[in-house]
Amino acid sequence: MLYIAARDHVFAISLSASSEQIVPQQKLTWKTKDVDKCTVRGKNSDECYNYIKVLVPRNDEMLFACGTNAFNPTCRNYKMSTLEQDGEEVVGQARCPFESRQSNVGLFAGGDFYSATMTDFLASDAVIYRSLGESSPVLRTVKYDSKWLREPHFLHAIEYGNYVYFFFSEIAVEYTTLGKVVFSRVARVCKNDNGGSPRVLERYWTSFLKARLNCSVPGDSFFYFDVLQSLTNVLQINHRPAVLGVFTTQANSITGSAVCAFYMDDIEKAFNGKFKEQRNSESAWTPVPEEQVPKPRPGCCAGDGSAAAYKSSTTFPDDTLTFIKNHPLMDEAVPSVNHRPYFTRTTSRFKLTQLAVDTSAGPYKNHTVLFLGSEDGRVLKILASTQLNASFSTQLLEDIDVYNPTKCNVRGEDRRVLGLELDREHHALFVAFSSCVIRVPLSRCNDYEKCSTAFTHKLEPADWRLHLWIPPKQPSAHQP
């Protein structure tokens, strides 16, 4: 089943149904009742709808959905089999943004809902948040502290081992002398974090750490792709767990895009490395000397590593809690696999926006194929070599113009690819735009306009903020 989250609606599409058009098997309609209140606030009338921004599995039978609800974020549970509501609504604040254009991520892990978004009407308070657990306390990042989060744009969240990882881009606090420079980050929290003591970090994360993701072309002068656009879940590269992401250049730089991969154990090495600090507002950011790092090591999970003797983070010493509060940033960046991108593109004026990866492509299922969506409605199909060598070899298999104005007819063409979802079983790629979803066959086709099928739903104005999701056959947490 393919789930399409849109404005006022969620559609369930059967992947096995054969049809010239993509036809919803089920449709959920959830419209806001707060339109009048929304327009009175003087907000853009286009935002006075219910944009479904969260759609994740709560368990094998239940979907958890949250919508902007005309600037009154609200969440509900729905039965996966029928899309019928189950139980009462819950407040969506800190779980869902107030506006459709604000970024957010969310997932359930161990019965708790982990979310990252804006918590207030003015979008001034960014948060990484845990809630809805039966036994775990509600926790969040420290409020209005730029060392923790500074104007973040959240992209992805992953449960892996004892942690939940958040991937985002933000204004780099360590490079303020250069103006507003965007860096990409990975942050980590322990799933068994219970917050700090009544004196330090009570009801806040005690395990929050973040590190820069380094996607760059090496040389005498490194060329950086600093802005994360899209990221995969954990997959295997060279028999090692890794993630792949699309990165682009800064907004005021030349137009460029790249695909970089990061091993999960390299991410762990960064979190086990040195911390970064700024001694005063005038000084540069430097590594914290190891002898100044308290024990148990800040960022450790209770009952593990140097914190093995502690049953709960609430019993951590004040020194450890105070240090982590003031030093969430790691000194070393996470290096990309082979210290270079898989693929770069700097000759087009259109940036890449989305990524889907098939690590078992080909007749013998031994090839890795990347599908890269772009701002101009195209999808690049790239054959990538993942072998350990000095340079990656990639081959452009196809450059497909997916956007079809006859099937995605809206006022003012928005050709930006908003989402890619791979249906391996049926050899198809679903491509989401602001006004439609296109199904593209993965086998070669001489005329994609004829081969592809589309799903549109007449809405005025046609403005969906689509995202796609195909549930795994057996949902389970990744293990290292």
Automatic annotation (TrEMBL):
GO molecular-function terms, A-Z: chemorepellent activity; semaphorin receptor binding
Superkingdom of the source species: Eukaryota
Name of one Pfam family that matches: Sema
Gene Ontology cellular component annotations, sorted alphabetically: extracellular region; plasma membrane
Gene Ontology BP, a term: axon guidance
Keywords, in A-Z order: Developmental protein, Differentiation, Disulfide bond, Glycoprotein, Neurogenesis, Secreted, Signal
Localization terms from the record: Secreted
Residue ranges constituting the Sema domain according to the UniProt record: 1-442
UniProt xrefs under InterPro entries: Semap_dom (IPR001627), Semap_dom_sf (IPR036352), Semaphorin (IPR027231), WD40/YVTN_repeat-like_dom_sf (IPR015943)
Protein name in the entry: Semaphorin-2A
Native organism: Hucho hucho (huchen)
Native organism taxonomy: Eukaryota, Metazoa, Chordata, Craniata, Vertebrata
